Every structure is written in structure tokens, then in C-alpha cells.
Amino acid sequence: MATTNIGKTKRSTDDMINNAVDRQQSWLENRRSFTRNFLNRFHIFNKPVEQTKTVEKTDNKRNKSVLRAYWLPILCAILVILIAIFIVLFKINTPVKVIAPSVPEPIIKPVEKQPVSEPMFDLVRIEQSGNIVIAGRNVKESNISIMINKKIVATEHTNTDGEFVYAPSDALMPGNYVISLIDTDKNIKSKDSVFVYISEKGYKNSVSLLMTKNGSKVMQAPELLDGDLVVSKIDYLDTGRLVVTGKALPRLRVSLTLNDKYLGFARVSDYKNFGLGADVGDLKAGENYKINIRLHDTEGTTIANVEHNFVMPEMTGDDNTFYTVRRGDCLWIIARNFLRRGVLFTMIAERNNINNPDLIFPEQLLQIPTK
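Now predict its structure.
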């Protein structure tokens, strides 16, 4: 029985081996057939002539079928290429003519000056030589007299535009002068007058102010500067308050003294502006005063000093002054300088019809109700 079992086991093992060999040969034959077909398709090996002809016929039939199926897109592509070549060769070099419509010449009309019914000032300037120049308007072709310190010094005749100029050959002595105009024909005096201060130090320290019922306007300001410190305006209010504004190096300190008496200090803003107000009491007309504005560094050392000596003029009695807003200003600071307390900014807002006190603009002219 042992021999019989061993024989059966041998035969079954041989069958398994033969089957495996057959499957391996079949797989190899399939691989060789696939490889031959793949290489024949790409014409890598030499083929018999008959087979090549057969392949060529097959390819020709395939190309003809492709042309029949895609002839329309191919034709459209050829037409597009031909049109592009035509545009490039014949259209680029053709000049384009642009016909501009005719525009009539502009008609420039001269600016008509408003006629005036009373004498008015246009300019009062102190020259470098100390001479004064006065220009203004009145009724055309009329006589107008110039009065200085309540005394008529000259009479001029206006031209066809109503303009006149008065420039005396002799310079005025240093001091204070009030200039007015009188229409000699109608005996009408100008409503406005001009205050002039001629400094002993020359025209650079002289002042010319147009005084109206609504306040004063600087016609010629003194050149008060020392290096990086520039004083643009000095206001003295009839409330006894002195206000100084100007420009300096940002974040430094500016101090103010009157006749060597310390009045206070202010910080220069990031926009290089400063404003400083102080109570000085009543300054008597005709007396000499000295103002010093000093710029200090971070250690307190004076690095610039503007000194202004002046003779106090007579007050006009007007209860208003004007202030031009600068970059970085706010109504609180303006009210603190002019009205002593920042909480009074509502008075400035009300006088100037400002609905939003937080919204003011550079170069905006504000009327300050000093009383």
C-alpha cells in the first residue's frame, strides 16, 4: 500500500508541474505576440513587402477618412491664417487719418472791476528805503486826498478805472501812523483806515494793518525770524491778552516774555506750528515794549530768539479779531490761547457757524469773539 500511494503522489506532482510550464509558455507567447504587434505598428523592424503595402493601404484609407471628417475646421484654419497674413502685410503700414473738428477760438472777456462809491485801500507797503506806497480805488476820474495822522499830505486823481497810487519821495520817520482816505469832491471819508508802524530797525520789522469794522488784516507783516524760529503774527486784544503764533522745530518748547517778564511756554506741534497766549494787562498807547520769543532744546537751552520792539498804538475799540487755521489746530487750543479757557471753543464755533466743532480746515479764517 505504501508503494501505491507513492506512485499516485508522483503522478499528481508531474501534472501540476506540466500545467505550470504550459501556463508559463502561453504567457510568454502572448507577450511575444504583443511585442511583435507593437513594434510592427511603429515600423521599427523590417517588414515583408506585402505586409508593408497592406499597412500603407490601411494608412491611406485612415488619412482619407480623417480628411473627410475634419475638412471644414481645416479649411477655416487656413482662411484665418491667410486673413492674418493679409492684415500684417497691407494694413499696418497704411496711415490712419484723423480729422479733428474745428474749434472756434476762445473769447477772453476782460474782468470787469466792481465800481466803488467810496475810497478804499488796496495796498499800503513800506519799502526797503523806508518810503511808503499807498494804492487804492475810488470813483473814476475823481480827486482823493491821503490823510496821515489826521493831516492831509497829498491829493491824487484817479484814472478811468478809479485807481490811484501815492508814493512820496521822502521817507517817513520811525513811529506810528494812521492813514485814511477822503473823496475830496464828495467829502466822503473811507470807512477803513490803515495802521502803520515803521521800525527803527528798518522795513523788515515794520507793520502795516488794515483796520475795518470786522477786525484787522495784515497788509505787511514784520520778518520776525531767527534760524528755525519764525513768528508769523502777534495779536494784542483789548481784553489785555497777548497771542503769538509761528513755526519752529517740532516738539520743542517756545517761551514768551514781555519786557523780560516770563509769561509762559508752549510746545511746538508735529506740524511745526505753535501758539501761545498770556494775560499782560493794559498796554498803554505810546509806550515802548519789548517781546521776546525763545526756542529751547530738550535740555532747556535757548537755541533761537526773536526780539520785537514796538510802540503801543491806540486801540481801535473793535471786539473781534481773526485767526487763520493751521494744520494740527483744534478749536480747544485756539480758544485757550485767545479766550483763556479751552471750554469756550463753543463761542468760536457759534460765531463762525460751525456745526461740528471737531471739523475745521487749514487756511480757514475764524472770527474770534474776544469779549
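The first strand starts at residue 120 and ends at 126.
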